[in-house]
Task: inverse folding
């Protein structure tokens, strides 16, 4: 399970997320979306670190969670690498 990479969008109007706490189109508060993206990024970072340490099962677990939160192309590649190591 690697997830389909797709851009984050405003849950209210579906405008593309532009890294701001407020949606540029409808003004919705996107703080939760920003936190989700940051958490997924941190999990991908952790997966890379765990992979370098040789802990492939833990790296795979971290990248799975990251991809569930916010799938990216980089995450898909990392998922494949971690899967191959397990």
Result:
């Amino acid at each position: 399970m690697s997830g389909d990479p797709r851009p984050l969008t405003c849950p209210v109007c579906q405008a593309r997320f532009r890294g701001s706490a407020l949606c540029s189109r409808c003004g919705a508060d996107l703080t939760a979306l920003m936190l989700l993206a940051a958490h997924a990024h941190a999990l991908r970072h952790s997966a890379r670190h765990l992979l370098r340490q040789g802990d492939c099962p833990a790296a795979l677990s971290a990248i799975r969670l990251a991809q569930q939160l916010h799938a990216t192309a980089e995450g898909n590649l990392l998922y494949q690498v971690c899967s191959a190591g397990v």
Q: What stands out?
A: The chain is about 55% helix and 0% strand. The longest helix spans residues 31-52.
